[in-house]
Amino acid sequence: MAPRKRKSRSVPDAVAESVKRERDRRQWTQEQLAGEMRDLGFTSWGRTTVTEVEGAGRGRQVSVPELLGLAMIFGVGIDGLLWPDGETVPLEITSDRALTERAQLIAVMVSLGAVRQLVTEGPARQFQEAVERLTAGYIDRVKETATELRGVADFIESRAFETLRKDIELGLEGGAKS
Predict the structure, then answer these.
(1) CA–CA separation, 47 vs 34, rounded Å?
(2) CA distance 174 to 165
(3) Number of Cβ atoms within 10 Å of the Cβ of 84
(4) Which helix (H) or strand (E) holds 93?
């Protein structure tokens, strides 16, 4: 008999399964994953935190910033932690509501203000600031290059005007001689 397909699962169960699977794929210990989270600024993460997130012991739900951190560490989107490998199992939000597709997840996050929270709090804010610093370096280089190009364009323009002025003077002199 074929295995029964699940009708739905809870968000904590989905995250627990994904964290365990992604950690196992990398052959990381729980302490290694905890260290990666600490490196992102989640200073309270330890081996036992990973154990709890993976569903063992008393279990533990992750916060939205922690979910983002895990997604960054594993190189997957948040939806990849909730629906791994293209699964389509609905996620239970309440006892009578479930998310059935990724687009609904985005709508829920926006409506709950989670996106704002991710950008303004903790490690996610530190990540954003790091991206802004990197981007600022590129923007400065682009500005420098644009300034250099403006200088070259000004030089070419001044040479063109000088040549035109000389041609006009020669033309006037040539016309006066006729």
Answers:
(1) 6
(2) 14
(3) 15
(4) strand 91-94
